[in-house]
Amino acid sequence: MKVITRFLSQTTSKGYSLIELLIVISVIAAIYLVAKPTYTHFQQNIEKKAHIANASKIQYASLHAILEKKITLPEPNTHINITLETLNNLNYLNDLIDPSSHDNRGYNPLSVIQIHNKDPKTEFYITLQSENNSHIYINSIQDNTQDAQKKITDLQSSDIHLFNAP
Predict the structure, then answer these.
(1) Strand partners, 126
(2) CB-count burial class (<10 Å; 0-12, 13-18, 19+) for 101
(3) At a CB cut-off of 8 Å and minimum separation 6, what does 161 contact?
(4) Which tens digits make up the pLDDT trace of 28-65?
(5) Of 10, 42, 128, 133, which is most buried with the most CB atoms under 10 A?
């Protein structure tokens, strides 16, 4: 009897077999493969929306500077270029955090805002340059008529374009 109980106690395992561990690892890998693309797409959409929010701040800071006559609105059918540095120096805009940077750095201060006066419309072309040399192009039209207005707050994620500099 002692021999049988000793034999049974030696054959019962206290751990998992290799097959069981491989099954668990393969299930975890399958879950990762399904979830990773969804997470990446979700993260990119959040970054685009953050860029749009920053562009909205830039547009309103530019309009505020124009209304207070710190920046002159261009003559009809012409444009002016201003930089983020100019808006920062005029105290209309604090340093913006670039959502694409992983170390909470801001955009390049020489990023350009082009303001086109196409009477009765004012168009804003905002080119934000990240510290990693990627460029974000955002176009917004402020229509001064009673017709349809496409403000920067109405932009969708598909309206902005991300490019990497060569």
Answers:
(1) 113, 138
(2) middle
(3) 136, 137
(4) 999 999 999 989 888 888 888 888 888 888 888 888 88
(5) 128
